[in-house]
Amino acid sequence: MTDPALLAGLANEILSRTSSTARVQEIVQLSLAPVFLLAAIGAVLNVMNMRLIWIVDRVRKLEKAERTAGLQDREVEELPALRKRQRYAQYAINLSSTAALIICLVIALMFISAFVKPAIGTLVAICWVGAMALVIAALLFFMQETRIATATAKERRRISRNIEAKAGDE
Question: CA-CA 20 to 30 A from 33: which of 72, 74, 88, 162?
Answer without folding.
Answer: 88
